[in-house]
Design goal:
Peptidase_aspartic_DDI1-type, aspartic-type endopeptidase activity, Peptidase_aspartic_dom_sf, protease, 5-stranded mixed beta sheet, 36% helix, Cathepsin D, subunit A, domain 1, alpha+beta
C-alpha cells in the first residue's frame, strides 16, 4: 500500500510499504529518502506517536493515509508541533499552516487536486482550515470503511447466500456509480430540467403561450382559456370523454374550427376542450401535421407551412408558471371516452368505451402505463421500491424520477 509522509524538510513523500511493516522499518526507509537518522525521527499518526515495534496495520494506518514526521528537538532548541489530532485537525494550526505554505511542491499539489484546501492554507481563517482538515479526515475514514467492507466481502464464505447477494449488490452499485460519474463528466445537462417548447400564438385574437407537443395526438385547450378567447359558445358536448395518461382530466367537448395566428399568418384549428388548470393550450400532432410544421431545435424555432413562417420558442423566463405539465391532471368521476396521454401531457390514441364500464378499463390502462415506467427505471439498475417512491415524488414523471435516483 502507499502512504504519504510529511517530512520535516518541508516536503511530502509517498512511499510504498507492506501493511504489516514495522514503524522501525518505515523509519529506515525514510532515512534513505530524507537523510534524517532513525534516532532523530518521530512519526505520528492521528496525533499519536508511533512506537518503533508497532505494525502499521496494527495502529490503523491504511492506504493513502498521512503520517507526520518531525525531528526530535535537541536540548535548548524549540520544536514546532506539526502533528494532527484524532479528528484530523492540526494540533498547532498556525505552525502547520506555515509549514505547508513554505512547501511549494505541496502547495502545487493541493492547487491541482484540492483548490479549496489550498486556498485555506493561504488564507488567514484558521477555523476554516481546521474545518476543512476535519472534513478531509472524515472523507478518508469513510473511504477506508467502504474499502474494508469490500475486503470483507471478498474474503467472505463463497457459499453464503447473503454474502453473495451483498457482493452482487456491491458490483451493481459500483456500475451505477461509474455510470453516474461518466454522466456528470460527459452529459451534465441531463441532470438539469428541460425547458419545454412554447411559442407565442393568438387564438381568436387573444394572445396565448402555446405548448408544442409532437407526442400529443390532438390539440387541446383548457376550459378557462377557451372562455377567455370567447370560444366556449362553440363547444360541442357530444364529444365528451376522459383524457387518461400521466393523470386524468375530463374532456368537455370539442371546438371544430377556430382561427389561430402564428407569426403573421392565420390558420384554421380544431381542438378538444379539457377541464384542467395546469395548461392553457397544447398544439398537438394533428395540427402540426395539417400545417406541415417543423420543430427546428438547431435554430430553436417552429416552422409552419413547410417553413414559410417561423416563430421562436420561448425562453424559460417567458413561460407562465401555471403552464407546467409535470403534474397529474384532475381525476373525473365519470366519462365515456379514454384518451391516453404522452409524458408531455398530450394524447397518443383514443379508445371509446361505454358509460359505466370505462373506469375499470381506465384503471387497467393507468396501471399498465405506471408498470411500464417502473420497468424502465428497474432496467437502469434501480430497485422496484425506489422506482415507485421516485415516481410518486415527481407525479409519475419518469425522466425526473430517473434524474432524482441518479443524483441520490
Amino acid at each position: 500500500m502507499k502512504i504519504t509522509v510529511m517530512a520535516s524538510e518541508e516536503q511530502f513523500i509517498t512511499v510504498e510499504v507492506d501493511p504489516n511493516e514495522s514503524v522501525e522499518n518505515v523509519k529506515a526507509l525514510l532515512e534513505v529518502e530524507t537523510g534524517v537518522a532513525i534516532q532523530k525521527q518521530q512519526l505520528q499518526f492521528n496525533g499519536k506517536e508511533m512506537g518503533d515495534s508497532e505494525r502499521l496495520n496494527g495502529i490503523g494506518v491504511g492506504e493513502g493515509d498521512l503520517i507526520t514526521m518531525t525531528q526530535k528537538a535537541s536540548a535548548g532548541v524549540p520544536n514546532r508541533d506539526l502533528s494532527l489530532n484524532s479528528d484530523g485537525s492540526a494540533v498547532n494550526a498556525i505552525a502547520f499552516q506555515e509549514h505547508i505554505r513554505q512547501d511549494s511542491q505541496s502547495m502545487a499539489h493541493l492547487f491541482q487536486n484540492d483548490p479549496s484546501l489550498a486556498q485555506a492554507f493561504l488564507g488567514n481563517d484558521i477555523n476554516t482550515l481546521q474545518n476543512l482538515l476535519r472534513e478531509r479526515h472524515q472523507r478518508t475514514l469513510e473511504l477506508r470503511r467502504k474499502e474494508n467492507e469490500q475486503l470483507a466481502l471478498m474474503y467472505s464464505d463463497p457459499f453464503d447466500i447473503e454474502s453473495q447477494k451483498k457482493i452482487e449488490e456491491s458490483i451493481r452499485q459500483k456500475g451505477i456509480d461509474e455510470n453516474w460519474q461518466a454522466a456528470i463528466e460527459h452529459n451534465p445537462e441531463s441532470f438539469a430540467g428541460v425547458v419545454m417548447l412554447y411559442v407565442d400564438m393568438e387564438v381568436n385574437g387573444i394572445p396565448i403561450k402555446a405548448f408544442v407537443d409532437s407526442g400529443a395526438q390532438s390539440t387541446i385547450i383548457s376550459k378557462r382559456c377557451a372562455e377567455s378567447c370567447g370560444l366556449l359558445r362553440l363547444l360541442d358536448q357530444r364529444y365528451k370523454g376522459i383524457a387518461v395518461g400521466v393523470g386524468q382530466s375530463e374532456i368537455l367537448g370539442r371546438i371544430h374550427v377556430a382561427p389561430i395566428k402564428i407569426g403573421s399568418t392565420f390558420y384554421p384549428c380544431s381542438f378538444a376542450v379539457l377541464d384542467t388548470s395546469n395548461m392553457d393550450f397544447l398544439f398537438g400532432l394533428d395540427m402540426l401535421r395539417k400545417h406541415q410544421c417543423i420543430i427546428d431545435l438547431k435554430e430553436n424555432v417552429l416552422r409552419v407551412g413547410a417553413g414559410e413562417v417561423s416563430v421562436p420558442f420561448l425562453q424559460e423566463k417567458d413561460i407562465p408558471s401555471h403552464n407546467t405539465l409535470d403534474g397529474s391532471l384532475k381525476k373525473p368521476s365519470h366519462g365515456s371516452a379514454s384518451v391516453p396521454e404522452s409524458s408531455g401531457g398530450g394524447e397518443k390514441r383514443a379508445t371509446t368505451t361505454t358509460p359505466g364500464s370505462g373506469n375499470s378499463e381506465e384503471n387497467r390502462l393507468e396501471e399498465s402505463i405506471f408498470e411500464a415506467k417502473i420497468g424502465k427505471l428497474v432496467t437502469l439498475g434501480f430497485s422496484r421500491q425506489d422506482s415507485i417512491k421516485a415516481l410518486s415524488l415527481f407525479n409519475n414523471n419518469e425522466e425526473q424520477a430517473a434524474g432524482y435516483l441518479f443524483g441520490g
